[in-house]
Design brief:
Shape: globular
CATH architecture of one domain: 2-Layer Sandwich
Strand content: 5-15%
CATH topology of one domain: Alpha-Beta Plaits
Number of strands: 2
Oligomer: single chain
Helix content: 25-40%
Length: 82
């Protein structure tokens, strides 16, 4: 985000909730403000999402992207001792 105001964060969160491509959005501590998880059909759709939707949200200063090449493991199970 280009500012750290509550108004900017709230506006971003409201805008991100309206984007159907966003399947997860997380407020972070550290170097980045948010992690946004996006599901799209292909790289062209991802480029279009970034250019036409994401960076048009007021308050975004810059973005950094990573693309998942392969899912090694995903689970929602908790490692509970019995």
């Amino acid at each position: 985000m280009n500012t750290q105001s509550a108004k900017t964060f709230e506006a971003f969160e409201q805008a991100i909730r309206k984007l159907p491509q966003v399947v997860g959005c997380y407020l972070l501590a550290g170097n980045y403000d948010y992690l946004v998880q996006v599901r799209v059909a292909d790289v062209e759709a991802f480029r279009s999402f970034i250019r036409d939707r994401l960076v048009t949200i007021e308050g975004i200063g810059e973005t950094q992207s990573s693309v998942v090449l392969e899912e090694t493991k995903r689970t929602t199970a908790l490692p509970l001792s019995l």
